[in-house]
Specification:
The chain has about 200 residues and is an alpha/beta fold. It has 7 helices and 6 strands, in the order αααβββαβαβαβα. The protein is globular. The N and C termini lie far apart (about 65 Å).
Length: about 200
């Protein structure tokens, strides 16, 4: 039996669109829509305006693949960043996470995902060709592969290393192991094994 509509088509459309967002199911989308409607002037109107600006102003950086209102992006145009270091990430969210941490002041390259033959994602579906071009044409001293420690992530990392093997540049990867504040009893075997292999002198 079809679910009975409890609101007009405009509200139902809002709920359907919200339900497509990560982490929001139909019930959460209904609650979010109702909250936006109740706070129309404080939330819904400013959100609609921000969405309009996002549609017209935000684009993809032709150099690194991140999202910004300028092209090349703010990060690529920043002369204070270390021009000799390039950090390779899977997604824009990873770039943002590294920027929030403030751990490195380098430039980035966003792949747009990882290689996954089972899902039909090959090298041509990612920003890999542009990465290889950048590494060959720019004066880099280090390329940091900040890629997830998943099977797909490591497959992608190995592919990149193979493609860059002819270049005289240091290719490094993030260390994997015990997280800060982590207790050994709660870690999986793979993390513990990697932590032991990557142990350092006290």
């Amino acid at each position: 039996m079809a679910q009975k509509s409890v609101a007009g088509p405009e509200i139902e459309q809002l709920i359907k669109l919200l339900a497509k967002l990560p982490g929001l199911g139909p019930r959460s989308a209904r609650r979010a829509a109702l909250h936006l409607i109740k706070k129309k002037d404080q939330l819904l109107v400013p959100l609609a305006e921000a969405m309009g600006v996002a549609v017209s102003e935000i684009g993809i950086c032709s150099a690194c693949g991140t999202v910004d209102t300028s092209n090349p992006c703010t990060i690529c145009c920043d002369p204070k960043r270390d021009q000799a270091v390039l950090v390779v990430v899977e997604d824009v969210a990873d770039l943002w996470a590294l920027e929030r941490a403030g751990a490195i002041n380098a430039r980035y390259h966003v792949l747009g995902g990882t290689l996954s033959p089972l899902d039909g994602i090959g090298p041509e579906d990612l920003n890999l060709a542009s990465l290889i071009d950048r590494c060959g044409s720019e004066d880099l001293s280090e390329i940091i592969l900040a890629i997830s420690a998943t099977v797909e992530g490591q497959t992608t990392a190995h592919y990149i290393m193979d493609q860059l093997s002819h270049l005289d540049v240091s290719v490094t990867k993030l260390a994997h192991g015990v997280p800060v504040g982590g207790e050994l009893d709660y870690l999986d075997e793979g993390t513990l094994t990697q932590a032991l292999k990557a142990r350092t002198r006290f």
